[in-house]
Each structure stands twice: as structure tokens, then as C-alpha cells.
Amino acid sequence: MTLFGTTIRFYDPKIDAWRSTWLSPLKGLVQTFIAKKVNDEIVLELQTTESYPEKWIFSQITPQSFRWRSEETHDNGKTWLLTEEMQIRKVAAAP
What pLDDT is attached to residue 49? Predict the structure, then answer.
């Protein structure tokens, strides 16, 4: 399944974090995140559609690449399960 959507983000000084909402109108999906910098990573926290805590983690960030992974817990954070992972690299545009 290919998902398309758009994201709206804004910094909320009351919680010292970013609020981010991803919308996919064609699939009727809405995901709401709280995002913070944690050491050298950007961590977005949300609840899965089954109400489990989930984290989207951006790490190894450089101008040319980053690692993205998704983890969820079913035991209140005692253990985290890797559910998705990608290594992203920027490529030069074709002339």
C-alpha cells in the first residue's frame, strides 16, 4: 500500500516540542505526533491505530543522508520492537 499525505507542524512553547499532524485524505488517516530532539536524534511520539506507543526516530543525520526507524512497545516501554527501518540518501538531480 502506497501512502500519500501532507504534514502540518508547529513549535509549541508550552510543551517545548513540535506538534506534527500527518494527513492522508485518500486513506482517511490522521496521525498526531509530538517531536523533540533527543541527543543527536529527532524523536516523534504517537499512538498506533491499536493504541500502542510508537516512536519514529530520525538518526545519523547528515546533509546527504539519515536513518529512519519506527519502534513500538506493547509492554509500556519495557521493550521496543523495530517495525520499519530505512536508510535515506540524497541523490543528485538528473541534468
Answer: 79
Q: How far is residue 18's CA from residue 9's CA, in Å, rounded to a whole number?
A: 7
Position 1 scores a pLDDT of: 61
Measured torsion, CA atoms of residues 61, 30, 83, 37, in degrees rounded to the nearest 10: 30
Characterise 3 by phi-psi region: left (phi > 0), alpha (psi -120 to 50), beta (else): beta
pTM: 0.81
Residue 28, C-beta contacts closer than 8 angstroms, at least 6 positions apart = none
Domain range annotation of the chain = 6-89
Name the strand (E) or helix (H) holding 8.
Answer: strand 6-12
Integer angstrom CA distances of residue 65 from 16, 46, 72: 26, 24, 24
Which is it for the CA torsion 2, 37, 45, 11, positive or negative? negative
